């Protein structure tokens, strides 16, 4: 990134003239959407043999494949720096996918911008900064439904039913909530678009074990409605326990793939990633 | 009686002018704070944006006056204001398209945009002086006073007169309407909320399907409307002189920072804090004290703390004091 002189941050720290809080950091692979093509068959959402990296940088993913079907929870696990989040970002169009493709619901969307993927039905919850802290919980949900022009009240009720605590705090600024509640707002915001697939980037990062269990319960509840869920997780054991499909990535490659149960029982996986 | 006279003198020379000036500063600071909050840089071209909007209004006002169009007791400029706003909107949109958009696409750091806005400032500054000239222009018409000093004296029988200029009353009324509209827009409408969302978290706004270019466009439109209104009200109240608007940038920035950059409520509070301090510090208190002081103790001097030439210094002293004790401004803004 440093090859662009306009992004030289020298002197950029004077907050009385520059406002760096909440500045965009996303670097979509495409600034303008390319065409999509119809494809038949295959899983509902698949990142198929993706190879690519950020910008002009080296490849981070190597022939990485990730797929999820309706009613399933697919979990990506792996050691630090394995490219878990990167794989998810590749599916979401934040990574230049140089070979391979991303297909959603019978459509090749490899060349779409992240925004257009949201319109196509991808709900994405980033790992950090995933709520509008200065806005109320209800406004957060409203903003989640920004692309919708129909009545959003029903969806909002569904989200409140799923996360009752949010109904209580609906007029409170989201930034005042606890870590677990914030994650609920973040997931609720993504659900407001009525996505066809939900992608969660480490939803339990930084929350207590109790809150983590509760979040997992909610995620299972969401998945029971038939919504496919793709999730990156650090807590591999707990995540694989609820996963229908697990992907273990190592250095940007698929190391192991199987159902959550299979992976948990695989001695190789246990030894290298789950601490015995 | 003495106390009443003192009070009237105080209102006449301090309170009313300060309220009018404060409203003008508040409108200007609102524009600065919106740009800071949403486009993330301090727009140094704001004073000259005000001047441009006011210039268009002045020109349309003259045209209307020459055709005998008037608003009766109200200044014709009020009728010309919408045209000024439209002209100013066109200017900022063209500027954004020609200049700022390039830097947005480069994802340039805000500090670069600050410097860019300085360049824009010089261009706009030159443009305004090129079109209307550097001199004072008078375009106020209609009834000059709502209450004149003589009428007030006759009405109340006091020694001191209280004059309220039509433009002063108008300034406050228009400012209140503008602020109410702005807050309603930001807090109640879908577009307004999307602007706040974009200000809060650009990435997430993008993920929610909010179009950044659209947010930026609405921001410029609102800023143009606010800047033109502020510029016209200031011009009506005092007079229109391009260089004065350039200087006005200083108290406007002071207001926005004192109130807390990025906070609309802060911009308004800051505007009044700066206006009141400027007016009280540069006012000659001889008259008011003369009424209040006991017999034989009335001051001989003017009791003016600072000459009016130093009024800009006052804004900066206030700015320093506030920032020393409350670095985020009176209302918690984003500046640290």
Automatic annotation (TrEMBL), chain A:
<dbReference type="InterPro" id="IPR003593">
    <property type="entry name" value="AAA+_ATPase"/>
</dbReference>
<feature type="region of interest" description="Disordered">
    <location>
        <begin position="1"/>
        <end position="41"/>
    </location>
</feature>
<keyword id="KW-0813">Transport</keyword>
<dbReference type="GO" id="GO:0016887">
    <property type="term" value="F:ATP hydrolysis activity"/>
</dbReference>
<dbReference type="GO" id="GO:0015807">
    <property type="term" value="P:L-amino acid transport"/>
</dbReference>
<dbReference type="InterPro" id="IPR027417">
    <property type="entry name" value="P-loop_NTPase"/>
</dbReference>
<dbReference type="GO" id="GO:0005524">
    <property type="term" value="F:ATP binding"/>
</dbReference>
<dbReference type="Pfam" id="PF00005">
    <property type="entry name" value="ABC_tran"/>
</dbReference>
<keyword id="KW-0547">Nucleotide-binding</keyword>
<dbReference type="InterPro" id="IPR003439">
    <property type="entry name" value="ABC_transporter-like_ATP-bd"/>
</dbReference>
<dbReference type="GO" id="GO:0015658">
    <property type="term" value="F:branched-chain amino acid transmembrane transporter activity"/>
</dbReference>
<comment type="similarity">
    <text>Belongs to the ABC transporter superfamily.</text>
</comment>
<keyword id="KW-0067">ATP-binding</keyword>
<dbReference type="InterPro" id="IPR052156">
    <property type="entry name" value="BCAA_Transport_ATP-bd_LivF"/>
</dbReference>
<feature type="domain" description="ABC transporter">
    <location>
        <begin position="44"/>
        <end position="276"/>
    </location>
</feature>
<keyword id="KW-0029">Amino-acid transport</keyword>
<protein>
    <submittedName>
        <fullName>ABC transporter ATP-binding protein</fullName>
    </submittedName>
</protein>
TrEMBL record, chain B:
<keyword id="KW-0472">Membrane</keyword>
<keyword id="KW-0812">Transmembrane</keyword>
<dbReference type="Pfam" id="PF02653">
    <property type="entry name" value="BPD_transp_2"/>
</dbReference>
<keyword id="KW-0029">Amino-acid transport</keyword>
<protein>
    <submittedName>
        <fullName>Branched-chain amino acid ABC transporter permease</fullName>
    </submittedName>
</protein>
<feature type="transmembrane region" description="Helical">
    <location>
        <begin position="111"/>
        <end position="132"/>
    </location>
</feature>
<feature type="transmembrane region" description="Helical">
    <location>
        <begin position="49"/>
        <end position="65"/>
    </location>
</feature>
<feature type="transmembrane region" description="Helical">
    <location>
        <begin position="77"/>
        <end position="99"/>
    </location>
</feature>
<feature type="transmembrane region" description="Helical">
    <location>
        <begin position="305"/>
        <end position="325"/>
    </location>
</feature>
<dbReference type="GO" id="GO:0015188">
    <property type="term" value="F:L-isoleucine transmembrane transporter activity"/>
</dbReference>
<feature type="transmembrane region" description="Helical">
    <location>
        <begin position="14"/>
        <end position="37"/>
    </location>
</feature>
<keyword id="KW-1003">Cell membrane</keyword>
<dbReference type="GO" id="GO:1903806">
    <property type="term" value="P:L-isoleucine import across plasma membrane"/>
</dbReference>
<dbReference type="GO" id="GO:0005886">
    <property type="term" value="C:plasma membrane"/>
</dbReference>
<dbReference type="GO" id="GO:0042941">
    <property type="term" value="P:D-alanine transmembrane transport"/>
</dbReference>
<dbReference type="InterPro" id="IPR052157">
    <property type="entry name" value="BCAA_transport_permease"/>
</dbReference>
<dbReference type="InterPro" id="IPR001851">
    <property type="entry name" value="ABC_transp_permease"/>
</dbReference>
<keyword id="KW-0997">Cell inner membrane</keyword>
<keyword id="KW-1133">Transmembrane helix</keyword>
<dbReference type="GO" id="GO:0005304">
    <property type="term" value="F:L-valine transmembrane transporter activity"/>
</dbReference>
<dbReference type="GO" id="GO:0015808">
    <property type="term" value="P:L-alanine transport"/>
</dbReference>
<dbReference type="GO" id="GO:0015192">
    <property type="term" value="F:L-phenylalanine transmembrane transporter activity"/>
</dbReference>
């Amino acid at each position: 990134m440093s090859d662009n002189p306009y992004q030289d941050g020298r002197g950029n720290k004077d907050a009385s003239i520059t406002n760096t809080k909440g500045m965009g950091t996303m670097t979509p692979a495409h600034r303008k959407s390319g065409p999509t093509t119809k494809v038949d068959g295959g899983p509902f959402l698949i990142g198929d043999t993706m190879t690519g990296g950020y910008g002009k940088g080296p490849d981070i993913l190597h022939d990485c494949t990730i797929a999820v079907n309706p009613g399933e929870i697919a979990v990506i696990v792996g050691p630090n720096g394995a490219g878990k989040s990167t794989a998810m970002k590749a599916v979401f169009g934040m990574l230049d996918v140089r070979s391979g493709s991303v297909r959603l619901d019978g459509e090749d969307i490899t060349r779409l911008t992240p925004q257009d993927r949201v319109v196509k039905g991808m709900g994405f919850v980033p790992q950090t900064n995933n709520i509008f802290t200065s806005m109320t919980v209800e406004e957060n949900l409203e903003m989640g439904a920004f692309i919708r022009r129909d009545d959003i009240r029903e969806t909002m009720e569904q989200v409140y039913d799923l996360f009752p605590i949010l109904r209580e705090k609906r007029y409170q600024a989201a930034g005042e909530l606890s870590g677990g509640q914030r994650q609920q707002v973040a997931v609720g915001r993504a659900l407001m678009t009525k996505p066809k697939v939900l992608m969660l980037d480490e939803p339990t990062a930084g929350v207590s074990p109790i809150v983590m269990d509760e979040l997992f319960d909610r995620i299972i509840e969401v998945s029971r409605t038939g919504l496919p869920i793709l999730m990156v997780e650090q807590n591999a054991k707990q995540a694989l326990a609820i996963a229908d499909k697990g992907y273990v990535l190592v250095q940007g490659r698929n190391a192991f793939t199987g159902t959550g149960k299979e992976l948990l029982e695989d001695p190789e996986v246990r030894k290298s990633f789950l601490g015995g | 009686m003495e106390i009443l006279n003192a009070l009237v003198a105080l209102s006449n020379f301090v309170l009313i002018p300060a309220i009018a000036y404060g409203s003008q500063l508040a409108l200007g600071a609102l524009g600065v704070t919106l740009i800071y909050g949403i486009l993330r840089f301090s727009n140094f071209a704001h004073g000259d944006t005000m001047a441009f909007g006011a210039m268009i209004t002045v020109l349309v006002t003259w045209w209307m006056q020459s055709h005998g169009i008037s608003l009766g007791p109200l200044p014709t400029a009020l009728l010309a204001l919408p045209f000024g706003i439209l002209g100013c909107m066109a200017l900022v949109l063209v500027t954004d398209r020609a200049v700022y958009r390039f830097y947005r696409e480069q994802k340039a750091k805000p500090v670069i945009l600050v410097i860019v806005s300085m360049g824009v400032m010089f261009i706009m500054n030159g443009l305004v002086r090129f079109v209307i000239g550097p001199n004072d222009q008078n375009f106020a018409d209609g009834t000059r006073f709502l209450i004149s000093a003589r009428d007030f004296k006759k009405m109340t029988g006091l020694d001191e007169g209280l004059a309220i200029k039509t433009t002063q009353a108008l300034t406050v009324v228009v400012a209140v309407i503008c602020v109410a509209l702005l807050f309603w827009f930001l807090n109640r409408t879908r577009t307004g909320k999307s602007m706040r969302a974009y200000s809060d978290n650009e990435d997430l706004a993008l993920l929610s399907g909010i179009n950044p270019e659209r947010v930026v466009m609405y921001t410029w439109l609102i800023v143009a409307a606010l800047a033109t209104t502020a510029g016209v009200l200031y011009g009506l109240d005092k007079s229109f002189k391009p260089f004065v608007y350039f200087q006005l940038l200083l108290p406007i920035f002071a207001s926005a920072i004192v109130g807390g950059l990025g906070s609309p409520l802060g911009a308004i509070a800051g505007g009044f804090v700066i206006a009141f301090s400027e007016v009280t510090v540069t006012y000659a208190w001889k008259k008011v004290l003369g009424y209040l002081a006991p017999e034989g103790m009335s001051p001989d001097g003017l009791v003016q703390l600072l000459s009016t030439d130093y009024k800009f210094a006052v804004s900066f002293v206030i700015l320093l004091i506030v920032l020393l004790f409350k670095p985020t401004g009176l209302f918690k803004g984003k500046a640290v």
